[in-house]
Specification:
The chain is α+β, with helices and mostly antiparallel strands and 208 residues long. It has a single domain, classed as Alpha-Beta Plaits (2-Layer Sandwich), CATH 3.30.70.20. It is built from 6 helices and 10 strands; from the N terminus they run E-H-E-E-H-E-E-H-E-E-H-H-E-H-E-E. It has a 4-stranded mixed beta sheet. A two-stranded antiparallel ribbon has the order 2-3. A two-stranded antiparallel ribbon has the order 4-5. The longest helix has 9 residues.
C-alpha cells in the first residue's frame, strides 16, 4: 500500500511562486485558474510583515493547494461521484468529465481557495496548449483543483511543483515507507497540518 503526501518546509519557502507557475504550465491551466498558491503570513499584502519596526516584525510563507485528505469533505458531498480518493495511493482526483459544476465541493471544503470554478468555456493566453501532453483535459463549467500531477506520478515522476522548487522546500513521497524523504523529514522535524480539527486527515504537512 502506498500513501502519498506532500511536505513543505516553511523555513525554506520564500514564496517565489515558481511552484504555482510550474503547475500552471505543466497542467495547461485556463486563465484565472490556480491549483497552487504561495501565501505570506504577516501583513495584509504579499511580502509584508506584521508587527512594528524595528523589533516586533514577523513574516513567513507557505503554499496552499488541495490537501488530498484521508476523509475528503468534497468527496462526501459530490452528487455525481466525480471525486475519488485513489485506493492505490490516496490521491484525491477529480473527473471533470463527470463534474456538473454544482460547486458543493467548494462549499464543503474547509481549505478556502483551493478550488476554482471554470465559468464557461476555458480560455487561454496562448493559442496552443502548453505543458505535459498527458495532463488532464479541461472542460467548461466545472470545478478544478490540484491533482498532485497524477499523470507524472503514474509514470514514476514527482509533481512539477516539487521539481521546480529552487529552495528545495517541497518533498513528495510515500508515508508508508519509513525510508522515504517525507517519512524521514516528519520523523526529524516538528510539523503541523492545516485545520486538523476538521477531521479531514490532510496529507500535506508543514515543517515548522
Amino acid at each position: 500500500m502506498t500513501k502519498y503526501a506532500m511536505v513543505m518546509d516553511k523555513a525554506r519557502c520564500v514564496a517565489c511562486s515558481n511552484c504555482a507557475m510550474a503547475c500552471r504550465v505543466e497542467n495547461n491551466l485556463p486563465d484565472g485558474v490556480w491549483w497552487n498558491r504561495a501565501l505570506t503570513v504577516g501583513g495584509e499584502e504579499m511580502y509584508t510583515p506584521s508587527g512594528t519596526y524595528p523589533d516586533a516584525l514577523s513574516m513567513g510563507h507557505y503554499t496552499l493547494a488541495c490537501q488530498h485528505c484521508d476523509n475528503p469533505a468534497c468527496l462526501a458531498v459530490c452528487p455525481v461521484e466525480a471525486i475519488v480518493r485513489r485506493p492505490e495511493d490516496g490521491i484525491v482526483v477529480q473527473d471533470n468529465e463527470k463534474c456538473i459544476g454544482c460547486r458543493l465541493c467548494i462549499e464543503a471544503c474547509p481549505y478556502e481557495g483551493v478550488r476554482t470554478y471554470v465559468d464557461g468555456e476555458p480560455s487561454y493566453l496562448l493559442d496552443f496548449a502548453v505543458g505535459d501532453a498527458d495532463a488532464l483535459p479541461h472542460h467548461p463549467n466545472v470545478v478544478e483543483k490540484c491533482q498532485f500531477c497524477v499523470h507524472r506520478i503514474d509514470r514514476g515522476d514527482r509533481p512539477a511543483c516539487v521539481d521546480i522548487c529552487r529552495a528545495m522546500a517541497r518533498l513528495f513521497g510515500d508515508l508508508d515507507d519509513p525510508a522515504s524523504e517525507v517519512s524521514k523529514a516528519l520523523a526529524s522535524r516538528s510539523h503541523e497540518r492545516l485545520l486538523e480539527e476538521q477531521g479531514t486527515g490532510p496529507n500535506v504537512y508543514f515543517l515548522t
